[in-house]
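Suppose a colleague, Dr. K., hands you the sequence of a protein chain of 307 amino acids and asks what its three-dimensional shape might be. Before reaching for any lab equipment, you can write down a predicted structure in token form. Begin with the sequence itself:
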Amino acid sequence: MSNLKKIILAGGTGQIGTALIQVYADKTNELIVLTRGTERKVKNISYVNWTNIKKGNYSNYFNDVDAVINLVGKNVNCRYTEANKKEIIDSRVNSVRDISQAFKRASTEPKLWIQFASSTIYKSSEDKPMTENNNEIGTGFSVEVCKIWENTFNIETSEFKNTRKAILRTSMVLSKEEGVYPRIRKMAKFGLGGIQGNGKQVVSWIHEDDVTGMIQNIIENSTLEGPFNCTAPYPITNKIFMSELRKSLGIKFGLPASKLILEIGAFVISTETELVLKSRYVLPERILEAGYTFKYPTIESAYQSLI
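The predicted structure, expressed as tokens, is then:
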């Protein structure tokens, strides 16, 4: 798909959305960013408020769309209170429905819809890798969120017969300025970069540049659709994840954090230990079969780029 006319980014002002704007600002005639913030236009980028979209305004923005990329979802780095659970689910479900309704009002379909989801849909596993075609779905709140999320997407887009649809089951995204990496880097510099829990849980991760690279690969290859594990090809244990972090920073020692300490700390900073202790052993089988070459396949190469 060359000579892109129009791309819509929903939730385009966050970590991944900002990276996608940098990639596609010069590769498409018109880039539309759906945001909760102020409406404005910067060169060929239009920032459009969700409220006006839901009211039925700006239907013209939804005509002749080469790709819509939906990144919307409340950050799960919070306590799973009933209020937060509702907001986590609603933010994901409602964004899919709002985008779908906007296209239906415009009586048009996007050529491609890339829907972000999460690799946490799979069960916690330390010994069995989860691929798109060979996996086991897990249990618990975070898994139910993923199932509802993907099911809503499948239902809402079922009428779009001419739309290619891809779901990105994303793992931990590493980038220099936002997300997980700046936090663990700070922890390591304060001497807290040791193993977390027993250190045996598998960490699936992906460099920000490979997220945008995978998206570009899917956009350009018209045969690609369905679920894709958006994760690097070499997952590692938490022990290696933290030791390689310390090594990249020139730090020799890091205090370990037991499960009890993590539970206390999670309560204090209003998050859940699942984000650290769940073993996510996920492999990107389908995108590798499609010929994508990862820029940062190993954690060593990823950490070096982030320094």
